[in-house]
Amino acid sequence: MKSMNVCKTCSLSSKTVFGSLTTEESEQLEANLECYEYKKGEIIYKEGSRITGFYCVKKGVFKIYKTGIDSKPQIVAFAQKGDITGYRSVLSNEPACTTVESLEDSEVCYIPSSLIFEFIRKNSNFALSLIQLTCKELNTANDLIKDIAQKTVRERLAETLLMLDQTFGKDEEGFINVNLTREDISSIIGTATESVIRILSEFKTDGLISLKGKKIGIGNYSKLESISNSFLK
Predict the structure, then answer these.
(1) pLDDT one-digit tens code per residue, 150-176
(2) Which one-letter DSSP state was computed for residue 53?
(3) Domain final residue pick, 115, 148, 181
(4) What end-to-end distance do the CA atoms of the chain give, in Å?
(5) Domain ends where: 125, 148, 171?
(6) Helices H, strands E: what count in the chain?
(7) Mean pLDDT of the residues in the chain
């Protein structure tokens, strides 16, 4: 991890909870944050550690996961440009409930908790933005629990592919623009890697997706939506 110069002109501020800060508060934020580089595979913080601030992704993609039985990871979310992580543990004053690991070379800005609490006390719009962000994350977690409990592996995989396509978009070749291993995908839906490989092969044979190494491209959205029994907004 390499420390960088403090980011003075972050273009992300208006796209995050920090968009509700006043001009004076924004200047205060820029004067106190620190930016860091993370190489692929490096970890921002681990489950159970104490977090002393928020982390805002300036560049790159991170996977957020919990550790289950036999130390097997369960990916619960992703963080990419403009996303904030670590805030729940800071607000609740509890150890981190997840681990955050870089999927590619990335840049992250760190904002100390003392500054966050000052903004919360002084700026009700900022406090409301944090509440709304927390509620959105809780709703996502509830959907994940429901899917694991009620959907088959085939349905969950179809839904996950649609989610990844919607979240990360496509690269120049038309494939989902995120670098995930089959193990990563299996940890999202909570199943064995072998099952993911088998069902992906079935989807390809049926013309629903295309495969090129680790890359996955969606060829039939309506069929995948029918299989997933979901309605993504």
Answers:
(1) 789 999 999 999 999 999 999 999 999
(2) E
(3) 148
(4) 36
(5) 148
(6) 8, 11
(7) 88
Q: Could you tell me if residue 233 is inside a domain?
A: no
**55 and 71 both lie in a single domain:** yes
Tokens representing 70 are 């036999």
pLDDT at residue 30, as a whole number: 87
CB 45 within 8 A of CB 51: yes
- Cβ atoms of residues 225 and 166 within 8 Å: no
* Mode of pairing for the β-strands spanning 215-218 and 209-212: antiparallel
Taking the C-alpha atoms of residue 151 and residue 155, their distance in angstroms, rounded to an integer, is 6
Distances (CA, A) of 155 to 78, 186, 230: 20, 13, 9
Confidence class for position 15, pLDDT limits 50, 70, 90: low
Q: Is 111 exposed, middle or buried (0-12, 13-18, 19+ CB in 10 A)?
A: buried
Show the domain range for 219. Answer: 152-228
Q: Phi and psi (nearest 5°) for 96? A: -60, 135
Cα angle at 186 between 209 and 104, to 5 degrees?
A: 85
Which residues, in sequence order, are CB contacts of 176 under 8 Å at separation 6+? 161, 164, 165, 168, 169, 170, 215, 216, 217, 218
